[in-house]
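Mitochondrial carrier protein MTM1
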Amino acid sequence: MIGGDQSMTTSRHDVPSSNADFNQNISETVFVERHPSAWDFGFGLSLGCEIELGFGERVVSAAGAAVLSAILVNPLDVAKTRLQAQAAGVPPSHPRLNVSDQRTSLGPKKTFSDLRCSPSCTNGELGTRAVCPPECFRYSGTLDVFYKVIRQEGFQRLWRGTNAALALAVPTVGIYLPCYDIFRIWIEELTTQNAPYLTPYVPLVAGSIARSLACISCYPIELARTRMQAFKEIRTDVKPAGVWKTLLGVVSPLRSTDNIQNPVQRYRILWTGVGAQLARDVPYSAICWSTLEPMRRYILGMVGENANAANILGANFSAGFVAGSLAAAATCPLDVAKTRRQIEKDPARALSMTTRQTLMEVWRGGGMKGLFTGVGPRVARAGPSVGIVVSFYEVVKYGLHQRKHTAS
C-alpha cells in the first residue's frame, strides 16, 4: 500500500520476474484508481477513501461509537474509581449523621444488626459502636462494588456519571478519532516520501498527538466524572449533583473547601491532575494504536479483498479489545495517580502535587499492589470499550462512504 506512488513510475512494458512481482505491480497500479472496498476501511490505509470522507462525517461516526461505549462500560468505570478512591483513604460516604436523628430513624424496636449493609446503613457512630459493620464500607473487589452499590444505593447508581461520560465522550472521541485519522494519513505520506523506516511508528505518534488534544480540551468534564463516581450517595431519594453542580463545587469557595479567591487560580483548579491524565493517556494511546494497527491489518489481510462489514467489525473489535486491555494494564499506575489528584479535597495540595510525587506516595502506602489498584475493572472496561469504539467507528465510516458512493 505504501508503495502506491512508486507504481506510477513503473514501466507498463517491464516484464515481471515472477508471478508474485506481477501481482504486486498490478495491485500497486490499480490501488489509486479503484473505488475503496470494505477491506480498505478496516485496513486503514486507503487514502482515496479517507479524502472522500469529511471531518464532519468522521465526527458523527466517532460520536456514535462514544455514546455506545460510555453506556455499556460505565459500571466498570464506577467500580474502578471506587476501588482507587478507597485505596487513597477517601471516606466512603458523606459526613456522619446526627446521633439523635439516627436513634429516631431506627425506631424503638430496630437493632443495629437490622441495618447490616442495607440502603439506610450509614457510617455514623453511636457512642463507640458503629451503626453498621465496617465491611459495609470496604470494597474487596469489582463484584463486591457492584453488590454493595446496588444494595445500598440502587441499581441505577452503577451508571453514576454516565451523563458526564456522554458529555465527555462525544467531544473527546469526536476530536480524538478524526484527528488520529488526519494525523496518521499526513504523517504516513510524509514518512513514506522522506523516511520510510519511520512509517511503522506513525500510529504511535498520531495517536499520542490526537489524544493530547482531546484530553486537554475536555479535561474539566473528566474531573467532574471522577468526583461523581468516587463517592457513595447516602440519600437515595435526592438527585445527586450533576456535571455542572460538581464543577461549581470545585471552583466556588462557598460550595467547597477552596479558599483561593483569585478567579484565575479557581478556574485553574478545573485542570487539576491534567498532567497525570496526559502521562496516562499519551502512553496509553501510543501502546493501543501501535498494537491495534498491525493486529487488525494482519486479521484483515487473512480475509483479503472479500472483506465485508462483518469482517471489519470482527477484526476491529478483536484488535481493539486486545490493544485496549494491554494498554490499560500497562498504564494502571498512572490512572491511580490521576484519580488521586482528581479527588483531592485540599485545593492548595491539589495544585502543588506532581504526578511523580503522587506515584511515590502510592508506592510508599501500598507498594506494587497500590499502583495497580483497580486494574481488574480497568482492563475489563478498556478492552471492550476500545473494541466497541474502533469497530463501530470503522463500520459507520464504511456505511457513510457506501451511501455517498451509491448516491453519486
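thats it. The mean pLDDT is 74. DSSP finds 16 helices and two strands in the chain. bye
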